[in-house]
Amino acid sequence: MGGLGLAVGLIITVLALILAFYIAAFSLILTGWLSAAIMIIRLFSPGFLEPYMDIYPLVPDPTLNTVIYIIGALLIAALGFGMFWLGTRMLRGARFVFRFLFEKIRNSRKRAPAPAS
């Protein structure tokens, strides 16, 4: 039973890592788009969320500063989309590992001698 437990544990671990990867990608996309939307609103209405947000000025011009933050937020969202794109390759790799593992199990069960009666 030790080998079966190891295989099941490996499968659950890989599936959990894949799920965590996709959750991280989704959170990057959500964070980037929401930050960009808030900054676009702040671009047209400079007093928007003023008591709740303190933005560190990168440049002296406040409009250019907001545009830089919008570009940064969209780059974060692009990073999330890139993670989704790379996730397809990761799923191919996981599929290869699972097929390889199950093929090894099948082959070892076929080669196992029949129990003596």
| Major β-sheet annotation | none
Rounded Rg: 25 Å
Q: What's the helix-strand series?
A: HH
Number of helices: 2
In total, how many beta strands?
A: 0
Q: How much of the residues is beta strand, in percent?
A: under 5%
Mean pLDDT: 86
Shape call: rod-shaped
Structural class: mainly alpha
The domain count comes to 1
How far apart lie the N and C ends? 23 Å
Helix content: over 70%
Q: Which regions have little confidence, pLDDT < 50, spanning 5+ residues?
A: none
What does this structure look like?
There is one protein chain. With 117 residues, the protein is mostly helical. It contains two helices and no strands. It has one domain. α1 runs antiparallel to α2. The longest helix is centred in the C-terminal third of the chain and has 50 residues. The chain starts with a helix and ends in a 6-residue tail after the last helix. The relative contact order is 0.13.
Offer a concise description of the structure.
The chain has 117 residues and is mainly alpha-helical.
Key phrases:
117 residues; mainly alpha; 2 helices
Please render the helix and strand layout as text.
Elements: H1 2-44, H2 62-111
Helix pairs in contact: 1-2
